[in-house]
Amino acid sequence: MHLVKVKKMEEEMEEVFRKKVQEKTERMVKAERDMEERMRREHDGVEEERVEVGRRREELRREVEAWEAAMETVSAKSVDSIGKRKFGFGTIGRLKFGGKT
Fold first, then answer.
1. pTM above the 0.70 mark?
2. CB 3.0–4.6 Å: which of 54, 71, 79, 84 could bond 89 by disulfide?
């Protein structure tokens, strides 16, 4: 009778142990799945940022090209107006010294 009782307690303890092991395994599997999902979301976020940086870099490159082209135009106009001023055809016009105005 005592051996039967001990055997029954042993079986119950083994069942509790199996349940705890199963629960722990399930928690670990869930934690691993959650971690993989979080890593996937972070990877996707990094990829989106990479694409955005590439887009902004291209936009900046176009703005710099436009600015440089505008500066070349302004520079060409400045050189042109300096050349005209040498001959008195500047934007101010001719200045008269003495005499009536």
1. no
2. 84
